[in-house]
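Thread title: Can someone regenerate the structure for this chain?

I was given the following input by a collaborator and told the matching structure tokens would be attached. They weren't. Posting the sequence so someone can regenerate them.
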Amino acid sequence: MSDAQLIAQLEGERDHVLRAVSGLTEDEMHRSVVPSGWTITRLLNHLTFDDEMFWISAVLGGNRRAIEDLHDGWASDPMTGAEAIDIYKRQIARSDEVLARIDLDAPPAWTPPTSVFDAPGMPDGRAVVFRVLNETSVHAGHLDIVRELIDGHQNLVFP
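Best answer:
Regenerated them for you:
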């Protein structure tokens, strides 16, 4: 898979996430329908802060502000659903700026200390983008299921 294809896949999964939450009411964005108790707003915060900001802005981009602002997205301060969507979109735009200027063959600009992320470092930018793609894809599927439970909407995928 080429770098352009990898980035296009990530863009497609981000769009999938945004389609899954489109048109939901504020109550629906904050309603938990799964035993673990997460809400759509909290999942969007996770994607924003733990994936886009952490992996792309901080790890790949080495952005000092992103590194200083890192926090557990699941535990973000409460916000409206519209704010969560807006913040996710803005972080995607920041991520895209990073992805447009880096070499995916190069090692990440920042390696988080084990107190922040206790796992082996990523060897290059491609591995980092693949991780974000994987996370986004998995959570897009979670959002599809929750959306169907809330209002019956289905994201139909045709072969």
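The helical segments are 3-21, 26-30, 40-60, 64-68, 81-101, 125-151.
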